[in-house]
Specification:
Elements lengths: L1 H30 L2 E3 L5 E5 L3 E4 L9 E7 L2 E7 L4 E4 L7 E3 L5 E3 L8 E9 L7 E10 L6 E6 L4 E6 L7 E7 L7 E4 L2 E4 L9 E8 L2 E4 L3 E2 L13 H24 L1
Parallel strand pairs: 1-3, 2-10
Antiparallel strand pairs: 3-8, 4-5, 4-9, 5-6, 7-8, 9-10, 11-12, 12-15, 13-14, 13-16, 16-17, 16-18
Length: 257
């Protein structure tokens, strides 16, 4: 009898564990890729992500809820009958959760801005309540590329990423010329290179609040900024030759006249 009770308890315990794991996996899968907007603050999200504007009715509270963006009523719904009206610009992008929260799917750059949730309790004579949400949508940055402009005395490096908004750039050195330390902030930088035997390699990182990508390294040995020692005499010799020819022409001109 005791063994049977122990088996029954073990079976119940295993069922409870399995149910907990099932719920956990379901919830994790359900909320993956969903950002929960926080009232009164800015929420950063990626293009294509979903955003949840949280709301919860209390008990049998009967309310009307409106999500407003730039004076446009995105969606309005009545909790008693679970009915809602959706703006045509947001068709197939808005879902209403069981608790009254509003989910916007596949957000785009144009969705950035200030949102209001207007709540009106139909059983109360108080004025409607408003919650403010600021949404900032970012496009993920692509892997940046470095271009080098070889000049007489220095090298101009430029870093660019073809995709992403509000991108910032930083540069790092790589061994043996450096120790992975950040040496410069900005999209461009001027380098006065060391001799070829001590050349330094650089990488550029592009990032914004939702993504980060690093370029392939570039070795400054691609540029040769040293000029031959005798090269500085070439302009002087050309000038002297020109003066000599002019002098001869003047000499013969005067002699003929």
């Amino acid at each position: 009898m005791n063994n049977q009770n122990e088996r029954l308890e073990r079976s119940r315990w295993l069922c409870a564990v399995n149910m907990f794991l099932h719920i956990l996996v379901y919830q994790c899968g359900r909320t993956e890729g969903i950002a929960v907007a926080a009232a009164g603050s800015t929420t950063n999200v990626k293009v294509g992500q979903s955003v949840l504007f949280p709301f919860s009715t209390e008990g049998n509270q009967i309310v009307t809820i409106e999500l407003i963006f730039n004076s446009i009523i995105v969606v309005s719904w009545f909790s008693k009958h679970k009915l809602h009206e959706l703006h045509t610009l947001y068709e197939h992008r808005i879902d209403i959760e069981e608790d009254g929260s509003i989910r916007m799917n596949n957000v785009q750059l144009s969705d950035s801005g200030l949102y209001h949730i207007k709540t009106h309790d139909m059983s109360d004579l108080k004025p409607p309540m408003y919650s403010r949400f600021h949404l900032q949508v970012f496009e993920c940055v692509s892997k940046p590329n470095i271009t080098a402009e070889c000049r007489r005395n220095n090298i101009s490096l430029s870093c660019s990423s073809i995709r992403g908004n509000e991108v910032t750039y930083s540069w790092k050195t790589l061994p043996p010329g450096g120790n992975d330390s950040c040496v410069h902030l900005g999209q461009t930088m001027e380098i006065y290179p060391l001799p070829p035997s001590e050349s330094t390699t650089y990488t550029c990182t592009a990032q914004n609040p939702v993504s980060r990508a690093t370029s392939d390294p570039i070795d400054l040995g691609v540029c040769s900024t040293q000029q031959p020692r005798d090269g500085r005499w070439v302009p002087a010799l050309c000038g002297l030759s020109a003066l000599f020819l002019i002098g001869l022409l003047i000499f013969f001109y005067k002699r003929n006249h």
